Amino acid sequence: MLVAAEAGWADEGSKSGANSASDVTERDDTVSAQVTARVVGHRVEDLSQRDARTQVFANPDGSWTNESTDAVRFVKDHGDYVPIEDLGTLESAGSTVTGSGTELTVADGTENPGSGPGETSVALATLTKPGQKNDQTLQLGWDGALPEPTVQDNMATYSDEVTVPVETPEGSDETETRGEGEAQAEDSVEAEPSEAEQAVESVPADVVVEPTVSGFKHEVLLNEAPDGDVVLRFPLGLSKGLKVGLDQATGDIRVVDAAGKVVFFAAAPKAWDEKVDKASGLPAAQVDVDTSLVEDDGVQVLVLRVGHEWLASKEREYPVTVDPSWTSGVSDSWVQRDATGSMAGSEELRVGTFNSGALASRSFLKFSSKALAGKKITKAELRLYNH
Fold first, then answer.
1. What's the CA gap between 117 and 71, in Å, rounded?
2. 272 Cβ partners below 8 Å, 6+ apart?
3. Rounded to an integer, what distance in angstroms lies between the CA atom of residue 129 and that of residue 137?
């Protein structure tokens, strides 16, 4: 997404590649950019005002153009902001995918349990935010081994012999589940069985990892109804100085640095089935996932629990998908009347309504306005790009 005072992106080219004065597209300071723009007859970037998301151009008529994006386009290299390489796609497992200020690698199936953040885990995905001094890294583990994935359409899918644990009360009789909206008598609630009284089984699943512009989304697809709660454990590996926390009010997961600044973020995990609302095109049956953070031998573990009652409902249409997505450098979000948590990092920007206003959505985009302070704005444009 781009907000600009004038049309157009920066011309590809540099001072070193210029063959004549008319080829110059950038200068090191404000005065040089203004003078050069008047001489060559086209806009010239003032490099002293460039940052990770912003470019400022001097125009031949004496005006200025500020172009700001909500995604990182430049990284600092030896004191200068240089363009990020073209955003990469996942071509093979184990290779590095370049994002907007991030680098991502996913498991290739050769890792042994114990090579990941926990004693029995492998690294499912590793997201790195390169820095001038130190890189910041989030490693998402998967308990147990993973097979070699199938890589197609920018996604890595792990299927062969992948299972997820299911917790069932040991020795309990089969009970009838209720569908959504059906009443349940209050006196039918029983005490939660202790860990010793629970039997752990498993159910087949697919694990999918897909790079996004500034992170990745990972989904676990349950292909059949389990006999109990599905419990997913993701050991987390964090680089020095980072710590993870769970917002108890919203369910959002934040990884912050020593100053409390958010470095990596995941919106509250959700689960949904195959049913689609015809009016909106969105999942018709979606629920919040019970989320917690526990410590296991000094390693923080993200635990997601999807309840048997919802999974076994006669209204379920399999497969059922469990997320969340992780991102870095969040600068946009949306709100909706039935969405209680943050949608920062979502691939969508929802606006308007699909049901005559009963469910309205609004989107928020953040752009740098540092270069606009004290300036008279003569024109503004907003451009949206669908990646």
1. 29
2. 283, 285, 286, 287, 320, 321
3. 6
Nearest to 264 by CA among 252, 275, 276: 252
**Gap between the Cα atoms of 349 and 363, Å rounded:** 6
Residue with tokens 């349990």: 113
Tell me the CB-side half-sphere exposure of residue 331, using CA atoms within 13 A: 17
3-state class (DSSP) for residue 68: strand
pLDDT tens-digit readout, 312-335: 999 999 999 999 889 886 677 778
Helix, strand or coil for residue 40? helix
**CA 35/CA 100 separation, integer angstroms:** 33
pLDDT tens, residue by residue, 28-82: 999 999 999 999 999 999 999 998 889 999 999 999 999 988 777 887 777 788 8
Q: How far apart are CA 94 and CA 123, in angstroms?
A: 11
Nearest-Å Rg of the Cα atoms of the chain is 25
Question: How many Å apart are CA 222 and CA 155, to the nearest integer?
Answer: 17
Backbone angles phi, psi at 357, to 5 degrees: 95, -5
Residue of 210, 237, 235 whose CA lies nearest to 221: 210
In this structure, are residues 118 and 141 in contact, taking their beta carbons and an 8 Å threshold?
A: yes
Q: Are 231 and 308 in contact (CB under 8 A)?
A: no
Q: How deeply is 205 buried, as exposed, middle or buried, from its count of CB atoms within 10 A (0-12, 13-18, 19+)?
A: buried
Task: List, for residues 233-261, the tens digit of each pLDDT value.
Answer: 999 999 999 999 999 888 889 999 999 99
Torsions phi, psi for 308 (to 5 deg): -60, -35
Phi then psi dihedrals of residue 251, to 5 deg? 85, 0
Compare 232 and 383 and report the one with higher pLDDT: 232
